[in-house]
Amino acid sequence: MDIKKLKVLFTEEQIQSRIKELSDEMNAFYKGEEVYAICVLKGAVMFATDLVKNLNMPLKMEFIRLSSYNGGTTTSGKVNAVDISLPDLNGKNVLIIEDIVDTGLTAKFLLDFMNCNFHTKSTKFCSLLDKKIKRVTEVEPDYYGFEVDDKFLVGYGLDYDGYYRNLKYIGYSDKFPLE
Ligand code: 5GP
């Protein structure tokens, strides 16, 4: 479990500076209109909290919990809604905030869920990371921070077996668990 064995992919400074750019784009898009920011737990918690601190419209935060990984480094291919209770989002601007889009199954599940349950004013999907190479759906995030290769990433909300979410940077290793 030696974090010195992790290679750094994005530093804290790179992440925070990209978040500033993304929030500038969003502030320009929403033009002061109210937004419901939906943080997808647990992975997006760090990104969502840092992002919303830079958004300057009236904003409410909601949290939902999904899971598709079973503690390992590959997706189960099935999205489980652990807790998806949300307020009435009809007529609202909805911004879904994710950590990473990989196969796109989670993003598709969420966008279908929104479409089936609400007539929102707008629904935008924002992910800090985009692993485009792994996509099996046609879903693309409206906003993303960085495109990444097919590596298993940890840190800044992303975990391996529940660990490393607290790191300020994003890193990777060819081998998990770290020895
Ligand atoms: P998708 O449904 O797009 O295949 O996967 C989305 C979820 O898989 C993410 O929200 C995240 O929880 C998990 N995931 C995908 N790639 C990685 C990765 O490189 N590292 C970690 N820790 N989780 C990942």
Structure, described:
- By secondary structure, the protein is α/β, with parallel strands linked by helices.
- It has a single domain (13-150), classed as Rossmann fold (3-Layer(aba) Sandwich).
- Helices cover 23% and strands 33% of the residues.
- The protein has three helices and nine strands.
- The strands form two sheets. The chain has a six-stranded mixed β-sheet with strand order 4-3-2-5-6-7, sandwiched between helices. The protein has a three-stranded antiparallel β-sheet with strand order 1-9-8.
- The longest helix has 19 residues, at 12-30.
- It is globular.
- The chain binds guanosine-5'-monophosphate (5GP).
- Guanosine-5'-monophosphate (5GP) binds at residues 43, 68-69, 75, 98-107, 131, 152-154, 158-159.
Portion of residues within helices: 10-25%
CATH architecture: 3-Layer(aba) Sandwich
**Total helix count?**
3
Span of the ends, CA to CA? 5 Å
Radius of gyration: 16 Å
Question: Mind sketching the topology for me?
Answer:
Elements: E1 7-10, H1 12-30, E2 35-41, H2 45-53, E3 59-69, E4 75-83, E5 93-101, H3 105-117, E6 122-130, E7 143-147, E8 153-154, E9 170-172
Parallel strand pairs: 2-3, 2-5, 5-6, 6-7
Antiparallel strand pairs: 1-9, 3-4, 8-9
Helix pairs in contact: 1-2
The structure holds guanosine-5'-monophosphate.
